[in-house]
Amino acid sequence: MPTLPAQHPWNAHDTAHSALVSAYRGERPSRQPVWFMRQAGRSLPEYRQLREGTTMLDSCLRPDMAAEITLQPVRRHDVDAAIFFSDIVIPMRLAGIEVEIHPGRGPVLERAIRSEEDIIALENSDPDAFEEALAPIREAVALTVAELGTTPLIGFCGAPFTVASYLVEGGPSREYLYTKSLMFSRPDLWGRLASWVADRSGRFLRAQVEAGASAVQLFDSWAGGLSLEDYLGYVQQYSAAVFDHIRELPIPRVHFGVNTSELLVAMRDAGATVMGVDHRLPLDEASRRLGGGTPLQGNLDPAMLFASEQARAEAVRIVLERGRSAPGHVFNLGHGVPKEADPLVLTELVSLVHELGVQA
Fold first, then answer.
1. CB neighbours of 300 closer than 8 A, spacing ≥ 6?
2. Which of 28, 31, 42, 317 is catalytic?
3. What is the pTM of this model?
């Protein structure tokens, strides 16, 4: 198996044997690893202060700012990993697609991509130019891991179904009507679009790994809107194509989707070595569905961040207990940190997980 270079944190700082990576490998480290999706960003006052006057996507492409935002929750909460601060549409922005994050809504395109001519234009874009455009990503990751030392960085990207849906819908959607219409009526065009997205997202992911990430997570935020049959027929192969960009490297590959309990096995089989589980499915049931051999990540209901301390402690205990059904377990929320969350609650939650994890 190919190895990472000597200067990579995997080797230089032994992140390969960190609590996070050990649990991702199916081991039980002495310290229960915990990190949170969306731990960097909108819930932290230092983030809001730093980003004032800078758009979301612009902040992702300023290496010094992206690195600092990535590091903020590690300093504040004592989490066991950093998650690279970026956005799933950054590869699309770097490929020349006009997209912006609208507050309260999410990514919105200047013009939706729905026709064959639109897809041909994407296919004709220069992959070498895209690789050059990834320079700020590589720089931001390098700056981040230089500060993290032995704490591993998780790289991430969006899965093709979710990202392609943004392109086709032109922004967030509840029903994915245009996306599914393209899938069902023109599977040839859907396949070409999804393949292009998979290539650019995969290159984005590999750039993060080469620059210093010690694990990766593929987010398929919208896959829960698909049946298992449609996922297998129209989506799985393109998620697998993203993982193909880093499949030969030794780092763990996490796959996470929202409301995807019925897709867990199919998502794992796309190439994941770890499955993230949202808060709708108990971890012991997730482990049973996956055959008992797949490490898990999750899955405290984010609403527990607003519950009483007693209720939250009991919920944490239950998640940890159910997580023991898997060969390895990384504690996380069942979705991202809400922007209204109290940072102090998150800090105390990390401490509680570390304390109870030892007892477990």
1. 279, 315, 316, 319, 331, 332, 333, 334, 349
2. 42
3. 0.96
Catalytic residue flag (residue 42): yes
The mean pLDDT value for 317-345 works out to 97
Task: Quote the Cα angle for 326-329-333, to 5°.
Answer: 120
- Lookup: tokens for 83: 């998650």
Concerning whether 111 is annotated as a catalytic residue, the answer is no
pLDDT tens, residue by residue, 48-102:
999 999 999 999 999 999 999 999 999 999 999 999 999 999 999 999 999 998 8
Quote the pLDDT of residue 224: 95
Q: How far is CA 285 from CA 27, 210, 270, 277, 336, in A?
A: 20, 35, 20, 10, 21
Residues 6+ apart with CB under 8 A from 243: 202, 218, 253, 270, 271, 272
Catalytic annotation present for 87? yes
Q: Is 176 a catalytic residue?
A: no
How far apart, in whole angstroms, are the C-alpha atoms of residue 130 and residue 204? 9
Examine the residue annotation and report whether 51 is marked as an active-site residue of this protein.
Answer: yes
- Residue 219 per-residue DSSP state: E
What is the pLDDT, as a whole number, of residue 358?
A: 72
For residue 104, pLDDT beyond 90: no
Instruction: From the candidates 24, 47, 166, 234, give the one annotated as an active-site residue.
Output: 166
